[in-house]
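Section 5.1 Outputs to date
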Amino acid sequence: MTGFVTSPRAARALDFLRRVGPTPFPALAVALGLKPGQLAKALRHLRGAGYAYPVRYNGAEFWCADGTRPGPGQEVVAWFAARAEEAGARYEGGVVSFPNGQVYQVEVVDSNRLKVGKWAVLLKDLQTLEKPLRECLRRAEPEGRDRA
């Protein structure tokens, strides 16, 4: 049985987790623009109410909601969604919508790379918070060509 969510921060975290899926703590902090202490309190609220729980996967701690579990490629999806939200975009259901009206399909290439429309993005670039999202996006390789 679940309880009530009375915290606006916890409600925002739950909304993000439901749209994106399992998300590492640092990516969730970026997406919501919260300090680690504020986010920890919001997640404790969600955990206590029965809405979210932590899971370890491939050495990283993910926060999950609605019985979801992380899988291959989820870390790069979560980081991309977090950086997109940080840039004012919205990620939901494998589609990212930017404030200027651009909409792109997001596809997992492998556990470290995404294809976003005609662009590609790497996990290590997304985790480098000094780079804005625009600098993380690179031209995708043409179909049939592998990147070294």
